[in-house]
Structure prediction request, 455 residues.
Amino acid sequence: MKVAIIKYNAGNIFSVDYALRRLGVEAEITGDIEKIQTADKVIFPGVGEAETTMQYLKEHRLDEVIKGLKQPTLGICIGMQLMCQSSEEAANGNVQCLGIFDEKVKKFIPNAQINKVPHMGWNTITNCQSPLLTSLPENPYFYYVHSFYATLGKDTIAQTDYIHPYSAALHKDNFYAVQFHPEKSGAMGEIVLKNFLELC
Amino acid sequence: MLAKRIIPCLDIKDGQTVKGINFVNIRNVGDPVELGAEYSRQGADELVFLDITASHEGRKTFADLVKRIARNISIPFTVGGGIHELKDVDTLLSAGADKVSINSAAIKNPNLISEVAKNFGSQVCTVAIDAKLDESGEWTCYLNGGRIATEKKLFSWAKEAQERGAGEILFTSMNHDGVKQGFANDALAVLSESLSIPVIASGGAGAMEHFKDVFEKGKADAALAASIFHFHEIAIPDLKNYLAGEGIPMRIVKP
Prediction:
């Protein structure tokens, strides 16, 4: 099985590679369009900022490439957010994203009870409904670091509650995405990555 | 619900955990990777690896070690000690660290926080503060592992660090560190309520009740400890089960 990890101007892509290696899978970290298009599975990971990352993807034609993928594709964190309609993480407060999912990405507004942003640490996911999230115990914990979130919508396949409920994971056609970091979520994260590798 | 985090801290010298640590169920407790993996299995939520090596050679060893940790451990980890400039941060993040902890270098050059946040994002930038409550009732920040007093005060310095782009504050109370009588809960509560970024409490853990207090009274988002975990005074699974029973949100890991 050929797994491509999309290389772009974002940090933290090596940890996804390391996590796959622990599962015995040798992935290729690549920005090469042909290699991405011909892989059996594609992972779109990263930690970064939406507007500059979208700009980078456009400049390298990766926006059209990602939208056109037909194989199972997994967005992680900023990868998931960029697969949504739009994001508030931009200088003028709105940047158009890839539009694969219908959901929009908004900024967390702290309230009196929860005053910490970013949402950093381990939180549970509920209402799991997807082969991506099968074989997990009830209310499993995953590791999160983010200040923006995807709204709940028809593509939502799991939700997390921080300040309010939001999309922990999304699915549409061959596209899957998670806001948490499966590569940093211990045994639970390994289950999700294994599930993804087994999708056809 | 977001869980409160339990974080063991490992001191590293020349690529090895410092002597005296005793674990029955792993082969080489001197190997930070094995010890870190064992803590991860026990349910630690994150790990901190602090390089206390002084030599240049030791630094290189530490970067190699960070690579091995990143390859082998599947929970987030922070590395600190000996970070002087942006290049050091780049080296450690490129080796696979999730976050870096900056202490003395941030006090000497506060702009380093801004640079790290701008280049790598706030989420990687933990600012560690060692502070001592002096006779006048003020918390004074110290340099070089608590040896040199500075002009900076805990609350204003933490606020400045946040404004410059720190993603987290790791506050060690020098009055409480090593005493094992509980964390600096009063100062922690003030700190946590005045900041919009998470606060990690350090210094003073001696009993399981101290962790309950640091989360409830000290309003900390995470608690860090070293010797009580290393010397089996408290086992992480017992601690987490106790805290969960006390109504503190905890990630319980089944073995």
In short: The radius of gyration of chain B is 17 Å.
